[in-house]
């Protein structure tokens, strides 16, 4: 029996394009003891995956040329060989971009679809939610009455960060790329304000106006000029969790900009790059808290769901032009 | 009775010059109850004082125009009015650049000159030593076998940082601006290696060669291109205590350079600006440790002593051209 997978055809220089990906038909191997056959239901596309397309040391190993792209997948068990998992079970794991997937049982986590839409396990009840939770709580250390600015605020992580900051009594300003996103942040997600960076000529001034007491925590998903503007409004003893730098991921040269160190010295600022796996020993605690907040409806969420396995490359590219609101997911 | 003081005549644009300072003769006021008359012996000149010449919010308030410059001073009590301090006692405090000084007793700390040269209380047994101690221990968190790079290594803070890192079992590379300084760091102070940034054409390569296992801690006193070169060799989970940015203090525009955030995200790097006063509740512990190391000769020190109260402005400027080895002090 055959299936279709998507491999990395060539490492992109700058923005990925049609030459970056290749669809391949492959033979599905027989199941070995302890393996299951999966049908992919939802595939996660995330900004960090762009970094894995480079042949460069980073926190996750580079994808290999001519090998499938890997990412978060929610899948249904279709067949099993000597496993506790049974036909019909839903699982999640880091899996190849393939319509059908053979995987060892131990690489999978069974999920409970009665509690939330299964795709949520790729986002708010998965790495995205934990990234927001640990980055904000452990690095940002939000205190009642502080001002929090989130860039990429309408993205999968940003939406969760803003809501958790509100739960902690902070004033929250979101930066996003359309008026619709800003309205959604303020309406559905309870942000205190928002700035559309695409239509705001003087971001530094706009942030100063939106944050009359300055910025205590800047949760940074995007980097670049948006961050320059926020940092020029930063308070003494501010904390800057660095979650991502999506505005720079497709740069082919090292980007330049105003140096941040002088401000960090004069204002005693902390800045920390992090990956969520650093907190893996605390995942159960974090996940329990996220589930509780979702149940209590203190934490709401939204997804952009693209239909069709063949849309995966396009969905990936669309992340970099802000094509998603909340989590970008492809439904097979 | 009259004395001479040095006031801030004008806020410098860029490098301070002759117009920045003005010498004035003033009348010494009568002593009030609880006050002492002091004769200044040693005056501290420090890079951070440049920042106080600007009219800009920073961790220490700006100096006022037509008011004396303030800094660390070691002085001898010449007269006292109802104080525990007596004629002949040596004290230290944040005091004006004035030959004779009237001060409230409560603003002064009595020092023990039997234990170390009195000027050491402006440096290794004062704020400089504590800055090195807390910045390295609390932010850098040195671990046995790690590689530590110190910029401004032959400066008052850098010399102490390198030696404390050695005490913690680290490999230490110092960056300084002359071959004599490098030799001194390796010879007298036990650094494992050193790089003269003024004569090294490719600093990135030189650091890679000096640090074959990468850089785990970068204690940054200087900023600018030296820091760019170190950061391009930074390890995963590295820590960067930001103590100073002396290479940029006289810039009139916001300096630009390669953005650090992308590397900080991919390598989970922590960077923290700090001032020593953050740790003031732990000063007794830190001071006791520094004294112990000095007594055991695990911690050595050196000073550049300029003679003459009238040399204070010149000594201050000389900091920015690397005119000091170790602590720069003016002896009245």
UniProtKB/TrEMBL annotation, chains A, B:
GO terms for molecular function: oxidoreductase activity, acting on the CH-CH group of donors, NAD or NADP as acceptor. Residues 17-330 form the Enoyl reductase (ER) domain. It holds the Pfam family ADH_zinc_N. It comes from the Bacteria. Keywords: Oxidoreductase. InterPro entries: ADH-like_C, ADH_N_2, ER, GroES-like_sf, MDR_fam, NAD(P)-bd_dom_sf. The keyword Oxidoreductase applies. This is NADP-dependent oxidoreductase. It comes from Dyadobacter psychrotolerans.
């Amino acid at each position: 029996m055959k299936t279709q997978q998507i491999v990395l055809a060539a490492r992109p220089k700058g923005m990925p394009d049609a030459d970056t990906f290749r669809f391949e038909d492959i033979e599905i191997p027989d199941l070995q003891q302890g393996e299951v056959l999966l049908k992919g239901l939802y595939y996660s596309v995330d900004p960090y995956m762009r970094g894995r397309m480079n042949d460069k040391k980073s926190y996750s190993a580079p994808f290999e040329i001519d090998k499938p792209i890997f990412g978060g997948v929610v899948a249904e068990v279709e067949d099993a060989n000597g496993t506790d998992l049974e036909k019909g079970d839903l699982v999640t794991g880091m899996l190849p971009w393939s319509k059908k997937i053979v995987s060892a049982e131990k690489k999978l986590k069974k999920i409970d679809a009665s509690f939330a839409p299964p795709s949520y396990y790729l986002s708010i009840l998965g790495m995205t939610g934990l990234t927001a939770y640990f980055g904000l709580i452990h690095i940002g250390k939000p205190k009642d009455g502080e001002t929090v600015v989130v860039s990429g605020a309408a993205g999968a992580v940003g939406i969760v960060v803003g809501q958790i900051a509100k739960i902690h009594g902070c004033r929250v300003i979101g930066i996003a790329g359309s008026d619709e996103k800003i309205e959604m942040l303020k309406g559905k997600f309870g942000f205190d304000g928002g700035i559309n960076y695409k239509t705001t000529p003087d971001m530094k001034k706009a942030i100063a106006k939106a944050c009359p007491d300055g910025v205590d925590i800047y949760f940074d998903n995007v980097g670049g000029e948006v961050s320059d503007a926020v940092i020029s409004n930063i308070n003494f003893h501010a904390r800057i969790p660095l979650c991502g730098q999506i505005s720079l991921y497709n740069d082919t040269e090292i980007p330049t900009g105003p140096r941040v160190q002088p401000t960090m010295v004069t204002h005693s600022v902390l800045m920390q790059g992090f990956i969520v796996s650093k907190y893996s020993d605390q995942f159960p605690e974090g996940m329990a808290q996220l589930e509780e907040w979702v149940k209590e409806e203190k934490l709401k969420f939204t997804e952009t769901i693209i239909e069709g396995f063949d849309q995966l490359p396009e969905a990936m590219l669309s992340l970099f032009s802000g094509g998603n609101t909340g989590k970008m997911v492809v439904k097979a």
